[in-house]
Design a protein that fits this description.
Layout: E1 2-4, E2 9-11, H1 14-34, H2 40-46, H3 48-51, H4 57-65, H5 76-98, E3 102-103, E4 106-107, H6 109-113, H7 115-134, H8 138-160, H9 168-194, H10 199-226, H11 229-232, H12 238-242, H13 247-259, H14 262-272, H15 278-289, H16 292-311, H17 319-334
Antiparallel strand pairs: 1-2, 3-4
Length: 336
């Protein structure tokens, strides 16, 4: 048993392990090649997050989905490069929108070079992803364009907030389907499609990826409240301090509005107050950790992960299917 990819995913077959490791190494080389420019500064900025590392969650899914066809088909690695470049580009833009100072343990591009250059670098990565995508055919271009539209729509919906009368939780889950689920779904779709898997397998893996992507993001919501920095790799309560409306807080708001319990209203007032004060922040975090809203969010994470696992049922048994199922377990484990 060898550990590869995000969360220490274990691969129990030497041939599959070799395929995955070889594929990911080729993706890494492809990312470095795609982010080169004749202008040295552009290369430095474009490779800033590539060299900082990352889970390579999406390329790993491409490699595993490709096992349901020919994993050595020529379009598999380039399609993985496309989805990771697209993901990296969104991080540059997200950090500008969030005014983030750190990303993957290094200075964010916006804090290092300013917002304008960070946005333009993200645009450069989108352009390079499109250049690679063009060689994969018009169907791949269409699929990526639709996913990118969903991704941007999700980001806009998050920024705009729910319309009057719309359930904030339903709105938030729609945001996650667009922002995260869309590109994870395309990762699985590209892997299977480029490998020549049959249409039913392509559709199954696409639906699996959509649900896994949402589960992955919901696990992050739970981790922001429940984990310590050693577990999550980031400071607990970061989203809470910055006022990001994650699922546990949305469930707290719903409970406070429906039941008007004094302790819920008091906690909500604390969260809506000044959490730059370390003592107030610590108190809000401690109280949320024992609130039923956190467990409810954890159960939603479990539900989406189980839905993803259930989607795999019609696929042929084998090590690749087992690895994809283990991804569901890994997501749930992150959320406790």
């Amino acid at each position: 048993m060898t550990v590869v990819g995000p969360f220490g995913l274990s691969v129990r077959d030497q041939a599959l392990e070799a395929d995955v490791q070889t594929g990911l190494a080729a993706v890494e080389a492809g990312l470095l090649e795609a982010t080169k420019s004749e202008v040295p500064f552009i290369t430095e900025a474009a490779q800033h997050l590539v060299l900082a590392g990352g889970k390579r969650f999406r390329p790993l899914l491409v490699m595993l989905a490709a096992q349901f066809g020919d994993p050595y088909a020529p379009g598999v690695v380039p399609s993985a490069v496309v989805v990771e470049l697209t993901h990296l580009a969104t991080l540059y833009h997200d950090d500008v929108m969030d005014e983030a100072a750190v990303r993957r343990g290094v200075d964010s591009a916006n804090s290092r070079w300013g917002n304008s250059l960070a946005v333009l670098t993200g645009d450069f990565l989108f352009a390079r992803a499109s250049h690679t995508l063009a060689d994969l055919g018009p169907e791949a271009v269409r699929i990526q364009a639709e996913a990118f539209e969903r991704l941007v729509t999700g980001q806009i919906l998050e920024t705009a907030g729910p319309q009057e009368g719309r359930d904030p939780v339903a709105h938030y889950l729609d945001v996650l389907s667009g922002k995260t689920g869309s590109l994870v779904a395309v990762s699985c779709r590209f892997g299977a499609m480029m490998a020549g898997a049959d249409e039913s397998a392509v559709e199954i893996l696409t639906q699996y990826g959509e649900r896994l992507g949402v589960a992955f993001q919901l696990a992050d919501d739970v981790l922001d409240i429940a984990s310590d920095s050693h577990e999550s790799g980031k400071t607990p309560g970061t989203d809470l301090r910055e006022g990001v409306p994650t699922l546990p807080v949305l469930y707290l708001r719903a409970a406070a509005a429906a039941e008007r319990r004094p302790e819920d209203l008091d906690l909500l007032a604390l969260i809506d107050g000044d959490l730059t004060d370390d003592a107030r922040h610590a108190e809000a975090l401690a109280r949320l950790r024992v609130h039923p809203a956190l467990e409810r969010a954890r159960q939603d994470t479990l539900r989406y992960a189980e839905e993803a696992r259930a989607m795999l049922a019609p696929l042929p048994e084998g090590y690749a299917k087992a690895a994809l199922a283990e991804m569901c377990d890994a997501v749930v484990h992150r959320a406790g």
